[in-house]
Amino acid sequence: xxxxxxxxxxxxxxxxxxxxxxxxxxxxxxxxxxxxxxxxxxxxxxxxxxxxxxxxxxxxxxxxxxxxxxxxxxxxxxxxxxxxxxxxxxxxxxxxxxxxxxxxxxxxxxxxxxxxxxxxxxxxxxxxxxxxxxxxxxxxxxxxxxxxxxxxxxxxxxxxxxxxxxxxxxxxxxxxxxxxxxxxxxxxxxxxxxxxxxxxxxxxxxxxxxxxxxxxxxxxxxxxxxxxxxxxxxxxxxxxxxxxxxxxxxxxxxxx
Length: 256
Ligand code: ADP
Ligand code: MG
Hints:
The chain is α/β, with parallel strands linked by helices. The protein has helices spanning 50-57, 80-86, 102-112, 117-130, 147-159, 177-194, 205-211, 229-234, 239-246, 251-254, and strands spanning 10-21, 24-35, 39-44, 65-70, 73-74, 87-90, 165-169, 197-201, 214-219, 222-227.
């Protein structure tokens, strides 16, 4: 999301951002920049602050300290609605409304913005092709979809308004390995095709490296290392990095 008015190439910036919940530092003095058009994988164990960090970028949470900037401008309450339209957000279980069909879910925000039925249907069909969602699935309810189909619809919903950025919070976390593998391929292809700013949260280092050259590893709310998988392997910032990387064994290593 380049902003010509101030020349900032950064889509998102966190400047010494902290967020605390009841004594827990969910995000602890984090400073990070996400250049427009870049893809970044955010990894870390459960509870390390990944989801909170995304929510801070979306204005779903507000920092106790520090500043969040979007397109080079401080994020303020008055900008949040505009932001929702320009940033697609996809969560682990998809977050689809169960009482609406897939198309009904996709139509919700565009309809609110005054899009015609025709325009909504056209956009939905375009995205169904992009995400390889089979014909006919758009008329079904979320409970009638497979896990992979639900995540495809959730991704489509995030893309309906053609946002500048896509924030994905463990989008494949709930899927079985085969569907997950297939969707990893497709997502990577989609990221490359669309050229948007992407931040994808995962706790799987192989998935992180598959999606992005840049990996940001978090622990206890802090950024432990920010670099390529090779940097994490060869120049770990602290022993935890090696521990984290090695904790995810390959099949060959773990078989007898
Ligand atoms: P991750 O996504 O890496 O698993 P989270 O950002 O969800 O981590 O959580 C970071 C820490 O903040 C955890 O200790 C979690 O329990 C706490 N936390 C997150 N959201 C809330 C909340 N709404 N209320 C209280 N504690 C929270
Ligand atoms: Mg999380």
